[in-house]
Amino acid sequence: MPLSGPTWVSQFPTSKRVEDLAQPFRDQVARFVAAIRAAGATLTIADTLRPPERAYLMHFSFEIAREGVDPASVPARAGVDIQWVHPDAPGTPSAVASRNAAEKMVQGYGIAFKPALNSRHTEAHAIDMSISWVGDLVTAKADGTSVTITSAPRDGNNASLHQVGASFGVIKLATDPPHWSIDGH
Amino acid sequence: MIVKHICFLMTAALTLSCRSHAVNASWSYDKNVGLAVVTAGHACLSINDPSLTPNTHVHFIDAQRQREMPAVIVSGRQTCGNDSAGTSGYEMRLDASDMQIPMVGIVVIGDGITFARRGTQLAGDVDRDRHDEFFRTCTSAEGVHATVWSDAPLTGTRRWHQYYALGYDVESTCMPAELSP
User: Fold this and answer.
1) What is the pLDDT at residue B101?
2) What ipTM did this prediction achieve?
3) Using one digit for the tens of pLDDT, what is the confidence trace for A77-111?
4) Is B15 on the interface with A (CB under 8 A)?
5) Percent share of chain B, pLDDT over 90
6) Is A66's CB within 8 Å of B170's CB?
7) What is the mean pLDDT of residues B151-166?
8) B141 shares contact with chain A (CB less than 8 Å)
9) Given CB 3.0 to 4.6 Å as the disulfide criterion, which of A138, A170, B50, B70 pairs with A165?
C-alpha cells in the first residue's frame, strides 16, 4: 500500500468538464451554459466534479498534519489505497514521519483552511464558473422565453441572471460568487 | 440659552475636527487594502492599485491568528489567481519563518499605521479617523471572506470586504454579517 505523501496530490484531479456532472444536473448545466454563451457572454468554467477521493485525501492530510489526528484512526476509503501511518527505520509506526508526510500533502494541495469531506461538488452536483458581459444581455430561459438583463453587475452576481439559471435548475449560492449547484448549496 | 449655543458650537467643532482628521486624503479602503495569499514559494498581493512600486512597505495581517507582520512589495505580476476584476497582482516578501502556510491574509498600505492588541483582537486606525479597525477572515462553502471593521468586529461598521475562491470545499465559519457582498 503506497505511503501518504506529495505524490498523491496529482491524483484524482478536479474536473472542469460539464460531462463529469451527474444527471439530470449535467443536462441542466449544459443548457444554461449554452444559452449564456449564445447570448454573447464570456463564461469560463473553473470546477465541476471534485472527486470524493480528493476531498478525502485533503481532509485527512489536514487533520493529521494540523489537528493532531492519529493517522492510524483515519478510516479507509474504497479506491484510495493509501497508508497514512509511516514506519520509522526499525519499522515501528512513526507519528513524526506520518505527520510530516501529511504536511507535504497539505502544502502540495495548498490548503489554507480545513477541507470539507462532502459537498455538492463531490456529488457532481455543482459547478464553479465566471460569467461576464458588456451592455445588455439578451438570453433565453429554460422555457424558451427571452430575457433582457439590463441591470448591474454584469457578471455572475447579477440577480436577474440567477433567475435565468434557476429556470434551468442551476441555482446560485449567494455566498460564493463562482458557485452554482442543483439546490443552491 | 447662551450656554446651550456654546455647547452646540463646541460639539459641532469637535465633530468637524474628528471627521477632517484623515492624514492622507488619497487613502481609501478600495485602493489601500488588499488580499494576499502566502504559499511555500510565493506571497502574492491582489489589490485595486496598479501603481505600487518595488520596495513599497505594507502591513500583512494574519486575521486568523490576529497578528501583523511587515512585508514589502518585490515586483508586479500578472495575476495572483482567483483575482477580483480590476485588481493588480504583486509579489511580496515577508518573513514567513513562523507562519503556518498556506495562508490568506489582509494587506494594508499606509505610512505610520500602528497596530495594538484590544483584548484578543488586533486593531489599528488604518484610515486615521480615530476609530480602530479590526480584521477578520472566515470561510463560506468554498472561499474566504476577508473583512475590515471600524469600532468592533461584526457589530461595528464594515469598511472593506473581499472574497477569495479557494478551489476546494471547506467547513463554513462565517457569520451573516461577513457574507454580504
Assistant:
1) 87
2) 0.94
3) 999 999 999 998 888 999 999 999 999 999 999 99
4) no
5) 71
6) no
7) 96
8) yes
9) A170
**Domains of chain A, start order:** 16-48+124-181 (3.30.310)
Question: Hey, CA dihedral for A113, A119, A123, A125, is it positive or negative?
Answer: negative
State yes or no: pLDDT of B21 exceeds 70.
no
Is B169 in CB contact (< 8 Å) with chain A?
Answer: yes
Contacts of A59 (CB under 8 A, 6+ apart): A114, A115, A116, A117
pTM of the model: 0.89
For B144, which of A47, A55, A113 is closest by C-beta distance? A113
Q: Is the pLDDT of residue B96 over 80?
A: no
- Return the C-alpha cell found at A37: 454563451
Beta-ladder partners of B137:
B146
Query: What are the φ/ψ torsions at residue B167 (nearest 5 degrees)?
Result: 90, 5
Longest dimension (CA), chain A: 71
Domain residue ranges of chain B, discontinuous segments joined by +: 27-179
What is the distance between the alpha carbons of residues B150 and B156, in angstroms, rounded to a whole number?
A: 6
The distance between the two most distant Cα atoms of chain B, rounded to a whole number of Å, is 68
Angle at A105 between CA A101 and CA A110, to 5 degrees: 145
Closest CA to B175 of B151, B140, B134: B140
In sequence order, what DSSP letters do the residues of A151-179 get, joined into one string? PSP-BTT-HHHHHHHHHHT-EE-TTSTTE
Those residues whose C-beta lies under 8 Å from the C-beta of residue A114, and which sit 6 or more positions away, are: A59, A62, A63, A66, A67, B170, B171
